[in-house]
Design brief:
The complex is a heterodimer of chains A (398) and B (133). Chain A has 398 residues and is α/β, with parallel strands linked by helices. Chain A has one domain: Peroxisomal Thiolase, Chain A, domain 1, CATH 3.40.47. Helices cover 35% and strands 17% of the residues of chain A. In chain A, the strands form 2 sheets. In chain A, strands 3-2-4-7-1-8-11-10-9 form a 9-stranded mixed β-sheet, sandwiched between helices. A two-stranded antiparallel sheet of chain A has the order 5-6. The longest helix of chain A is centred in the first third of the chain and has 16 residues. Chain B has one domain: OB fold (Dihydrolipoamide Acetyltransferase, E2P), CATH 2.40.50.840. Chain B has 1 helix and 8 strands; from the N terminus they run αββββββββ. Chain B has a 5-stranded antiparallel β-sheet with strand order 6-5-4-7-8. In chain B, strand 7 and strand 8 form a beta hairpin. The chains are: A alpha/beta (398), B mainly beta (133). Chains A and B meet through helix 6, helix 7 and strand 5 of A and strand 4, strand 5 and strand 6 of B. The complex binds zinc ion (ZN). The site of zinc ion (ZN) has 8 residues of chain B, from loops.
């Protein structure tokens, strides 16, 4: 017999979530120690112990899950260090849900820690890549994009924004509203890096980075860490938190780090990952109460809203312009303050998961949205390259 | 602008050889007839391996464009602000490039017709860039 994705709808739940973020942007703890803290903290949030863990999912250099498992004395019978950039953690949840549903593990932890501030480096430093390169067989990106000096990653997103504006009349003011609404959420989050409200004019007055994107259209660079715990729906019922069921999941990619290879720069693979996730969950965007979607840049949010079906292609500018994404708006989005104002340690996907889980399980403190039944966590890794969409819900949504 | 290549691949040797004479070359597939860029040992459209190099017209259209106000490469720090674009070649393939020769770097826009120009990239090679046609 063959299975279809909907056979796995609601079979597995997120049962614990934690993150570590500082308003200073700096955590002052090593990545390894943060990973340990997050794994233990997420398990504690769930009411489980390290000795319960038999599935481990994470990212890092070389053999990351093996290194952390060795360090903590965990012996997983399922391990996965899939790397799709910022969407890796949504992919990990998809994989963990299938592994648990198949009985290949029972308690899975997805973890992440990154301290770019401690390393003293921003994104886009190409020197490490150059050093590893064979000059006779360079990576295609090094041969065909790097010589033109595009600012990475912001220049790649700016190219997308330029075409979206040219084709659909999207304005800088409309994109700025995304940053404004996100900041309004951050003002309710005492851990957010930036909590003071901003205006559309503030965004327009911020320094140009790569036209048409300005400083306040771009995500932060902060330290940050987090983890979530998943287990079977049966076991989830006996744990500390309200289970956050994985109703749907989908992943797709259509290029890697070369923006020149993206088939249509205004349409992300979110069209595919979203279609798969909504189809598996048996719900539509109209059923969604909260959206946590990758906001490396304001344009990233605009494209995701279109590609997931919250509005038509080309209409995101008008869709967000009334403040719909902010507190009290019709579509609460990036309720922790997002990568734009809360935290962004190079890869942001973990924080989408943690916030979605908190909103669905009622742990979102002052920013809790009322009556959340269904949340979307939508990661986007690379340069609009790999999207992974999760539909999460309460018991009532099953 | 100060130009530097950080490596050229064996499969692209005819491309870079062409730049010595300021000729833009593109790979075509003899099986499906389509052109592609960047160069590969097979056709990314049909995965056939029956390829040939042809001289391109050097004409294209701006598909997307940005002006970098901070340098993406240390060697280009003195050149900011400069325009980075994706250009659709008349032959079909899309490539990243710079739009040069603009009095005001912000004036080039999506849909503008462009033609190839060349900047010295060292060792006799030239880097294909584009200017408004
Ligand atoms: Zn072909």
């Amino acid at each position: 017999m063959t299975y279809k994705p909907s056979d796995f709808r609601g079979k597995v739940a997120i049962v614990g979530a934690i993150d570590a973020v500082s308003p200073t942007g700096v955590l002052g703890i090593s990545e390894r120690d943060l990973e340990v803290q997050m794994v233990k903290g997420a398990l504690d949030n769930a009411g489980l112990k390290v000795s319960d863990v038999d599935g481990l999912f994470g990212t890092g250099m070389m053999m990351p899950t093996m290194e952390l498992a060795e360090h903590m004395g965990i012996t997983p019978r399922y391990t996965d260090s899939t790397m799709t950039g910022g969407s890796s953690f949504e992919v990990h949840v998809q994989h963990a849900a299938l592994a648990i549903a198949a009985g290949m593990c029972e308690v899975a932890v997805v973890y992440f820690a990154s301290t770019p501030r401690a390393r003293g480096k921003g994104l886009g430093d190409m020197s490490a890549m150059m050093g590893m390169m064979d000059p006779k067989n360079p990576m295609p990106m090094v041969e065909w994009e790097v010589p033109y000096g595009n600012l990475m990653p912001s220049g790649a997103y700016s190219l997308a924004a330029s075409r979206h504006m040219a084709l659909y009349g999207t304005t800088s003011e409309q994109l700025a509203q995304i940053a404004v609404s996100t900041r309004d959420w951050a003002s309710k989050n005492p851990n957010a890096r930036h909590q003071d409200p901003i205006t559309v004019q503030d965004v327009l007055d911020s320094p140009m980075v790569a036209t048409p994107l300005r400083r306040l259209d771009c995500c932060l660079v902060t330290d940050g860490a987090g983890a979530v715990v998943l287990t079977s729906a049966e076991r989830a019922k006996d744990l500390k938190q309200k289970p956050v069921y994985v109703l749907g999941a989908g992943t797709a990619h259509d290029h890697s780090m070369m923006i020149s290879e993206m088939p249509d720069i205004c349409t992300t693979p979110g069209v595919i990952s979203g279609r798969e996730a909504f189809s598996m969950a048996g719900v539509t965007p109209n059923d969604v109460d909260v959206v946590e979607t990758y906001d490396s840049f304001t344009i990233t949010v605009a494209l995701a809203l279109e590609d997931l079906g919250f509005c038509e292609k080309g209409e995101a500018g008008a869709f967000v312009a009334d403040g719909r994404l902010g507190p009290g708006g019709a579509l609460p989005t990036n309720t922790n303050g997002g990568g734009l104002s809360y935290t962004h340690p190079g890869m942001y996907g973990m924080f989408l998961l943690v916030e979605a889980a908190r909103q669905v399980s009622g742990q979102a403190a002052d920013r809790q949205v009322d009556d959340v039944n269904i949340a979307v966590a939508h990661g986007c890794g690379g340069v609009l390259s790999c999207t992974s969409t999760l539909i999460l819900g309460t018991e009532d949504a099953l | 602008m100060s130009r530097m290549l950080m490596g050229t691949s064996q499969v692209a040797e005819p491309f870079w050889k062409g730049t010595e004479e300021k000729i833009l070359r593109v790979q075509f597939c003899k099986d499906c007839g389509k052109a592609h860029h960047y160069p590969r040992n097979f056709c990314p459209h049909c995965h056939g391996e029956n390829l040939e190099w042809k001289d391109a017209s050097g004409e294209g259209t701006i598909y997307a464009i940005t002006v970098c106000h901070k340098p993406g490469l240390p060697t280009m720090a003195a050149s900011v602000p400069y325009a980075v674009a994706l250009v659709d070649l008349a032959e079909g393939p899309r490539m990243m490039t710079n739009i040069v020769g603009l009095e005001d770097v912000h004036t080039a826009k999506v849909g503008d017709k462009v033609k190839v120009a060349w900047e010295d990239a060292g060792s006799g090679k030239n880097l294909p860039v584009f200017e408004i046609a």
